[in-house]
Automatic annotation (TrEMBL):
GO terms for cellular component: ciliary basal body. The keyword Nucleus does not apply. The lineage of its organism: Eukaryota, Metazoa, Chordata, Craniata, Vertebrata. One of its GO terms (molecular function) is ATP binding. Keywords: ATP-binding, Ligase, Nucleotide-binding. The keyword Cell cycle does not apply. GO terms for biological process: microtubule cytoskeleton organization. This is TTL11 polyglutamylase. It holds the Pfam family TTL.
Length: 513
């Protein structure tokens, strides 16, 4: 720890909250630039909405959400329409303030006209989301899952998932929401930070009891009841990969802004906390992604009135220590060196080691030679690029972001100016007699003004990535009218990539000439 500031460069920087530190030119940082902004409730909902527009079935693991205040009229209209279509539909909605955490400011409503909603949204932007009314219950209690995911690299994309996670329980038996029980947080919200204040909270002294258990203990229970646990895991892996695919475009914009290509800089990795709810039918639903999941392995206990002590929490320790240990093993800068100096085969042990594998002197010898040999096997399982071929077709917005970054021009910016947008249109030859450069300027101004009025980031002027994505979808719809949206977008991306490759080819040729 460097409480007074760091003087020497490091191999690995373990920051508490965010990436920011201007003096890092090498090594690896445990945070990505912009991750906190990218996983905020509103930004995450926007990114998921874009993916739902393109691939509605693939992204149906995220509840239908609206962004307040700007989408209040849309929320009201859509709910009215759905109720008209299906009068027996009696929905509940959960309102979550943007940037909130630990259940802070969250409440449930039955109808968009609820006075709490209309009263609060002007003061604090929020996401309102369809409430999942039929969660899976264990011991009659609602619970959610915290899974740890390591984003080891953005380019190329590398994702690892921890084999075990935490299950955090409510402390009041669950009932489907009614006007009478809507306000009962110990029944509806699974946050540890809330439920710890309930008289019913049980500090777990083993991994399969109490108000916080390991996810594996829940899986064991489900498996003994005959549930298809393998399918559940594969659904969870798919949810994690798809969510990260939705986040990468924005992350890449922040990344190139903080660590411009061609300049010396560190690489990044990050442990993310995925909060997942299981529905009664075992379908996993994404609640949110945490950029700074708590890695505490102790909890406070009141020994006598007013006297608190930190005591170890076996469940947290079981799950979190393995995540940190394996993250360090995976990003270990010495590992490559060791691989080069040691052959891939395990060290030759004396014959006695085969018979007596717990012989301390032999274990020590082996671990001195290859420290990893003494550690338990990895709890972090690689899922990407391992399963890349099943998901690559979803990475369309990533390719749109690559076009956006290419035309940003000035290094260090995250927004595209009008000239950059015009150059994009010109180089990709997207204007014609039906779509003049004047119309291009109007499109730029309209969309940019609307996005900037939403008040997300006033630091820079210009077109943000989401606005560019909207403009790109608009252009794709104009050009390929009869296709479904994802095909329209894919076709326009291919056209742009192809035309830009031709421009580049010509430039190279002129360069040679
Ligand atoms: P926070 O960051 O404040 O914890 P979350 O999005 O995680 O916000 O929501 C808090 C809790 O509310 C979750 O742990 C979960 O128990 C419950 N919750 C959130 N969204 C939903 C939803 N759409 N359906 C059902 N329960 C939800």
């Amino acid at each position: 720890q460097f409480p007074l500031g760091r003087r020497l460069p490091c191999d690995i920087y373990w920051h508490g909250v965010s990436f920011h530190d201007n003096n890092i030119f090498s090594g690896q940082v445990n945070k990505f630039p912009g991750m906190m902004e990218t996983v905020r409730k509103i930004t995450l909902s926007r990114a998921m909405r874009t993916m739902q527009d393109l691939f509605p079935l693939e992204y149906n693991f995220y509840p239908r959400s609206w962004i307040l205040p700007e989408e209040l009229p849309l929320f009201v209209a859509e709910v009215r329409m759905m109720k008209d279509r299906n009068p027996s539909w009696k929905p509940t909605f959960i309102v979550k303030p943007d940037g909130g955490c630990q259940g802070d400011g969250i409440y449930l409503i039955k109808d968009p006209s609820d006075i709490r909603l209309t009263g609060s949204i002007q003061s604090r932007p929020a996401v309102v989301q369809e409430y999942i009314c039929k969660p899976l219950l264990v011991d009659k209690l609602k619970f959610d899952i915290r899974l740890y995911v390591l984003l080891k690299s953005l380019e190329p994309l590398e994702i690892y998932i921890a084999k075990d996670g935490l299950s955090r329980f409510c402390t009041e038996p669950y009932q489907e929401p009614t006007l009478k029980n809507l306000h009962q947080v110990f029944m509806h919200l699974t946050n540890y930070s809330l439920n710890i204040h309930s008289g019913n909270f049980i500090h777990s002294d083993s991994v399969n009891t109490g108000s916080k258990r390991t996810f594996s203990s829940i899986l064991c229970r489900l498996s003994s009841r005959g549930a298809d646990v393998k399918k559940l895991w594969s659904d969870i892996i798919s949810l994690v990969i798809k969510t990260i695919i939705a986040l990468t475009p924005e992350l890449k914009v922040y990344y190139q802004s903080d660590i411009p290509a061609g300049k010396p800089g560190p690489t990044c990795f990050q442990i993310l906390g995925f909060d997942i709810l299981l529905m009664k039918n075992l379908k996993p639903i994404l609640l949110e992604v945490n950029a700074n999941p708590s890695m505490r392995i102790e909890h406070e206990q009141e020994l006598s009135p007013g006297v608190f002590e930190n005591v170890p929490s076996p469940v947290d320790e079981e799950v979190k220590v393995a995540v940190i240990r394996d993250t360090l093993r995976l990003v270990d800068p010495q590992k490559k060196k060791r691989k080069d100096t040691h052959p891939a085969v395990p060290p030759k042990l004396p014959p006695c080691a085969l018979l007596c594998c717990r012989c301390p002197s032999v274990e020590q010898e082996a671990s001195e030679e290859l420290p990893e040999a003494a550690l338990p096997s990895l709890c972090l399982k690689q899922v990407f690029p391992k399963y890349a071929k099943h998901f690559s077709y979803l990475r369309l917005v990533d390719r749109v972001a690559a076009l956006f970054i290419r035309f940003l021009g000035v290094k260090g910016t995250t927004k595209l100016g009008p000239t950059g947008f015009r150059t994009f249109i010109r180089n990709c030859k997207l204007s014609n007699s039906n779509f003049s450069m004047a119309a291009v300027d109007i499109l730029y101004i309209d969309i940019t003004r609307r996005w900037n009025s939403m008040g997300i980031d006033h630091k820079e002027s210009g077109m943000c990535l989401q606005a560019f994505v909207e403009a790109f979808f608009c252009l794709a719809q104009r050009k390929y009218k009869s296709l479904p949206l994802h095909e329209q977008v894919a076709s326009l991306i291919e056209l742009c990539e192809c035309r830009l490759a031709a421009v580049r080819g010509k430039r190279l040729l002129w360069g040679c000439g």
